[in-house]
Amino acid sequence: MDIIVLCEIVMLVIFGCSWPANIYKSITSRTTLGKSLAFEVLVVIGYLFGLTAKIIIYNRTGELQLSFWFYLLDITLVCTDIMLYFRNLRIDREMGRIG
Question: The whole model's pTM is what?
Fold first, then answer.
């Protein structure tokens, strides 16, 4: 494995470690207060650009880099938290916390 790909995987793992805690907080808090949907959407967009780069490399070389799977995992985690955001938004509205 190339050192560049290894560094990229380490970066993705480190960033990815924060999402399970964020998901847990979203599940247990049952509120959107303190959350930023815009931030999470921007993170997904960034990950999608990284994933796109891996697809381009695959199309050019036939090599699917291992980091591809870490991008997919991180995107899945962030999208899970985004889905919880909308669940919590509904709860916030039902509880009268937001208009």
Answer: 0.92
Tokens at residue 31, please?
A: 């509120």
pLDDT in tens, the chain (99 residues): 899 999 999 999 999 999 999 999 999 999 999 999 999 999 999 999 999 999 999 999 999 999 999 999 999 999 999 999 999 999 999 999 987
Residue 79 region by backbone torsions, left for phi larger than 0, else alpha for psi between -120 and 50, else beta: alpha
Task: Output the CA torsion 84→88→89→92 (10° steps).
Answer: 180
SS3 for 33?
coil
